Amino acid sequence: MIEAFRDSLDRIRILITPTQYFAWQTLLLLSIFSWLMAILAEVLDAATLTVNILSTCSWISLTAAIWWALWRNPVRVAGFSISAWITGAVLCLFLFNPWPPERLRWALAAWPLISTAIRALPSFFRWDLEFKRPKPEVQQELVLILLLNLLLTSWILFYFQVQSWFGRYPSLLVNDFDRSAFVYDFSSDFERIPQGVLLLESAADALEQQLNGIPWPRTERWLLNSEAQVADIAREIPRAALYAPEESLFWKLGAPPPIGAAGGYRLNFRAYWRGPVARENGYYLEKSCQLTPQRRTRPAPPSRPSPSGRSPAVPPVEYETTIVQCDTAVPEPQWIDASAVD
């Protein structure tokens, strides 16, 4: 075990020991030295500028060392050298450090183009920085590489844009992307329940507050004008009811005319999705609320006594109040023809 460890150390020492001063190992050692000095300066509470300068020198030396080493010993995949893309990845880590999500997005998008520039640099400049014109076949190769990397950058940006859409409009996830050649959801952070469910729940709560317990004749008058009443409910629902308020522009709350059911009426709230869909047709979510009269009694008011001094017996007063019961199940999307949505 100890011998194997010593052999590994010897190999590393031989690998990073420069055979001459002008070598990639020299830059690697400078990078390690600058990095250690930056750590020491931070431990000793040196000025932030000093730490940043030492860290920058370490990154620059490391990037140059990797580029030089891979130029001398290229890494090939299927006969194609990917050395420039490895160097480009290290350079992007340096340029976009620190790496919050927004900067990481641009680092990944810039990586193919920066790698292309690194790949093309030796074709235009000699070691003494003298400009040279690449051969026609090299020019064609560079143009092809540039176009392919522009396409790769476009795909990376498109992926992040789609993820941004999913964050702002989570109801898009209701669509089926399994057969899509353009969209692939790598993230499982988004909930696949359309926000129309929250809209329907808010509408059902508003209906219960308005009609629950009121006299049944008032409920019947409300139902006669149900279209306008539902429109009022839709206007009163705040955008804050949705956890992605921007999506409220794509939802429309409505309800078909109530139908008689179980001795009362059934009102079906529908939330229509007017945003982008993966199919030709749109969809809606539906939540049913049952409105039923409930018979109640209350004591009759006391009557005036008769001339004989006796009060006649008055039967209790019967009346009907409204009971509102809405479904608690999570509604499933129902796909419809776009022409069927008013």
Concise overview:
With 342 residues, the protein is an alpha+beta fold. Helix content is 49%, strand content 14%. 19% of the residues are buried.
Distance between the termini: 78 Å
Number of helices: 9
Domains counted in the coordinates: how many? Answer: 2
Low-confidence stretches: none
The helix-and-strand class reads alpha+beta
Task: List SSEs in N-to-C order.
Answer: HHHEEHHHHHHEEEEEE
Q: What general outline do the C-alpha atoms trace?
A: elongated
Total number of beta strands: 8
> Mind describing the biggest β-sheet?
6 strands, antiparallel
Beta strand %:
5-15%
Q: What is the C-alpha radius of gyration, as a whole number of Å?
A: 36 Å
The overall pLDDT average reads 82
Helix residue percentage: 40-55%
Name a few traits of the molecule.
342 residues, two-stranded antiparallel ribbon, 9 helices
Please write out the topology.
Elements: H1 2-16, H2 24-43, H3 48-72, E1 76-77, E2 80-81, H4 83-95, H5 101-124, H6 136-168, H7 196-211, H8 216-224, H9 226-236, E3 251-254, E4 259-261, E5 264-273, E6 283-298, E7 317-326, E8 334-335
Antiparallel strand pairs: 1-2, 3-5, 4-5, 5-6, 6-7, 6-8
Helix pairs in contact: 2-3, 3-4, 4-5, 5-6
Please characterize this protein's 3D structure.
Strands 3, 4, 5, 6, 7 and 8 form a six-stranded antiparallel beta sheet that branches. The protein is α+β, with helices and mostly antiparallel strands and 342 residues long. It is elongated. The N and C termini lie far apart (78 Å). It folds into two domains: 11-170, no CATH class; 196-297 and 316-340, no CATH class. Strand 4 (259-261) and strand 5 form a beta hairpin. Helix 3 (48-72) runs antiparallel to helix 4, helix 4 packs across helix 5 (101-124) and helix 5 (101-124) packs antiparallel against helix 6 (136-168). The chain has helices at 2-16, 24-43, 48-72, 83-95, 101-124, 136-168, 196-211, 216-224, 226-236; strands spanning 76-77, 80-81, 251-254, 259-261, 264-273, 283-298, 317-326, 334-335.
